[in-house]
Records
---
Amino acid sequence: MRKLWMTAFFFAIFIVTGGGLAVAQKGGKPTGGDNGPPAHDPVARNSPTVNLGTLGDPEKMRREIEQAQKDALVDRQHRILKDADRLLKLTAELKAGVEATTTEQYSAADLRKLDDIERVAHDLKKRALK
């Protein structure tokens, strides 16, 4: 139990200190040329739609697409940081609960926090590597 707690704690520290942001920023660059990103690009699929009034001006359309991609990347990074903060909070609460016990048996609340830590860490890892 303590080994699992330590793993979760160090993973939270790694993410909060920016270790996961380098991975998150790696895939966030626009990949297309002047025609925009390709259709199979996940950043383009998740980007907001572009104003149809700019179809006559390719330069303005390209700038709007780039801005939409930047906004999507910032939103993704914000969600990663929010999850990392939640993970750090949960690990701190679990640490306090484990240190407060004198036996090797843990309360149901501590076990629920451990499950939450595992779930948040899994989601965070999946989101950071996307």
Note: Residues 58-100 form the longest helix (43 residues).
---
Amino acid sequence: MKRSGRATAWGYWARAVVAAFMVWMSALWSPAAQAATMRAPVSPPGDFAFHAAASADGLIVVHTYSRPAGFAARILALAQADLRHPIADTLGFTLRRRVDIYVYNSRRDFLAGAQPGNAAETGAFAVPAQSAIYLPVAGANATAVQDFLPHELTHIVFHQNEDAGVYGGTIFPRWLDEGNAAYDQLPDSAEAQQYAWTLQAAARSHALLDLFTSFNATYPTDPAANFLAYAEARSFVGYLIGTYGAAAYHRFLRAAHDGDLILAAEIAFGAD
């Protein structure tokens, strides 16, 4: 599925969500209530003999173990490319400080070392407060990191730039945070294609979620509903960018810095 253009298959839904978006902030929750539910690992990164490799500017540090020469350098290059496209294209900004990327040689090692809070549904994750990413890459092909890296790196860039608002914490709804990250996944990846299929099936069966209530401060507990929430959030971000343009979306994110999404939407997209 292409990343650009308007979401025509479910445009009626997206327009309804835009209308709801303009009144969502009427019941702003406290920063504590909107804090991230993904907890930091208990003992990251685990008992592995990690070796660090850093980018020339020191902003990206890749930690690997028992890998051939050049493996970490390839991941560094991929991360730098991801920062330029798609992340800067979507968000309009980039890293402000160092990010540490821990790469595990198997899912088993990932679960043992990173200790994700929801192991059954977590393929990789970021902890913005620590500016750290934890992900598995099985096999010798470093490009497999792209199954996870654009998504997780988008979280880091988003929070490094947005969490310094007047509230001083994570105050952004899940649909925005995860929508940006899911939108930046490779468009030809298996998961991106599954997002499209899931969304189209839900639209045909009139089973779409109320995005602003089901994907606001928490994640849906049902795995199928959770995946649909990601798909809807991804589509909504794509709708906003496709309808109003990347420059307007960048204005929206900059204006949302202090947490007032209604005001930010009016500044970037116009009053409705």
Note: The radius of gyration is 18 Å.
---
Amino acid sequence: MGETSWRDAHGRVVDGGCADPVLVRWARGAAGVAAAVSSPDQAVRRPWLPACLAAHGFTHGRVQARSYLVVDERVDDAVTVTVLAWPAADEDGRLRFDDLGGGREIGLSLAALRDQLYRGWLRRPPRLGDVFAAALSARARAALKQQRELAWDEPLAGLVDGPVYDLSAEARRAAKLAFYAGVAAIHASEDAQRWELLPKADRGGEPAPVRRLLPGAEGVPGG
């Protein structure tokens, strides 16, 4: 492995090419944090329950039945959504994925994702890293038990069972906290306050944006 390459959380070698060595060291640190987050340890854990889902009435017991869906890759008009088991959170609130290698992938068209999920609901186009909580349909779960990659060219209403919750803001915040915890120096809370290093207030108890996909109702959000 060269000076400008590193291994990601899946153990794959990433070539940084002519990247600045300082940035490469940061990337290596971020990958190490991701790997640590995915590895088991003896810390006290329970299913991750962001306040925006608790506001919808979710409990730790209910939320772990959801899948963690990530818009993971885009090539031209093809989008890959990675499906992961619901993460746990340690006592410091950091997310823990015990089996990143056990994730499954669903291939969709960008147009279907945009028109059937985002349009009329989210004020943004599909982005890499967007995260949703949803329960997969029985049909989708059965297919993903048989194969790691599933091409889905039917209406998205058949892919999930019940509402879809947008957790992109919470997931990005959790990733930032994990990254900076791994690469940044430790400061006293008084210094962090003075230097404005503390995170801004999040949505708190405000409910997460939610959408219910209805067959034949593309672009029309449901409750």
Note: The two ends are 50 Å apart (CA to CA).
---
Amino acid sequence: MREAVFEIGNELDGPVAGFGARFRELIRAANQDLAGAFDQPAIELTYTDRYLLSPLTVRLLGELLSGFAGPATRIQVRTLAVRPGGESKGGAKIDKDWRAMADRDLILKATLGAISPLASLETSHAIPHRRRLDFRTSRVSGTIFFDQGVGSWRTATDTLFDFGDTPSGQIEQMKQLFEITNNPHGTFVAVRLDPAGAPR
């Protein structure tokens, strides 16, 4: 089967580290086509999501991409340059939005660069509402469509984050260990493999 829909509950709950690897194995277990599609690191990954606004979503995105990428993977992330709805009210927890989007950009770039030196960030004032991960491997290309992106997952307990820290300090904070849990209603993910020879 070259298309599959997943209703995800608590299957990916656990340590934030390894979230992407667990996600990849969940998809690979669905059928033989998907198992073969993701048996090697991707050559190219392009992730589009308007709402990469908090340290939690950036950390989860980094973990997600790490599950599919290798050091030679070309990665591009597309997201909004400014927070929709105006300035963040701030806070002291990892799931709150950055008030300074320049800090978000710097830390997101650092997160991506730690996965692959071929990673880049594209910000824009107009990003589609869809959340998707387009991929190309040595065998196939396709798309993973997300109902809520990585925003469906929360920290299992309150996790602090100092937004007033220096950029380098914030990057270190991004490495902290914590548990994640899906929201009580779960989420949907769909995977589509392109027909052989289809243009990307």
Note: Helices lie at 19-28, 32-37, 55-68, 101-115, 167-173.
